[in-house]
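Amino acid chain:
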Amino acid sequence: MQQNSVMVKDINQHITCSLCAGYLIDATTIIECLHTFCKTCIVKYLQNCNSCPVCNTVVHETQPLLNIRPDRTMQDIVYKLVPSLYNAEQKRREEFYRERGEEDPNVQPPPPDHIGAATEFSLSHYSRDDDLISLQIESHSSNSQYELNLQDLSRKYYRCSSRVTVFHLKKFILGKIVVPPLYDIDLLCCEKTLHKDNTLKFIWISYWLKRDPPLVLKYKLKQRIG
């Protein structure tokens, strides 16, 4: 199976803060338009303005800070793509609080090896602070070549957490359709085969950022090897 790697330079503009031009730190997203910034940058900006600095969408007429949320998924992506950034930021925090004789109230665990990994999954399970992504799941046109009675999903449209991974989606789909023995499925976006650890947020940024929602994913039947 062909794997499609994403170069940091290809998505650099999506993992940097437009206010400070640096990589995102404490990534924070405006829920009205989903643009993301460093927490310090956007909080400072919204003290004097109530609209998004990128698209001018009104965040909130009177209290814009009510409509921003921590974006842990995006921060995980940044740390995975720029590994040295996490250590540098933790060192900076430690020095800052050590100089003041205080403990860091926002101690962060190391970024996970598998973003969004979990053993059980439901598309309806998410935290209220999660970003939600509109998703459309379809059968790939190539499935017809197998001449199998592969039924489509009863539902095609979903609204789920941006932290959901391809692994979880495959598990969900395989629980809804009957796949013959010795067969499995791949998930594709824009005809690109997706890695099992890719999150919906990562897929959106990598393949769908300039397209209108919903994010369209297609499942493609394949024969197991061995």
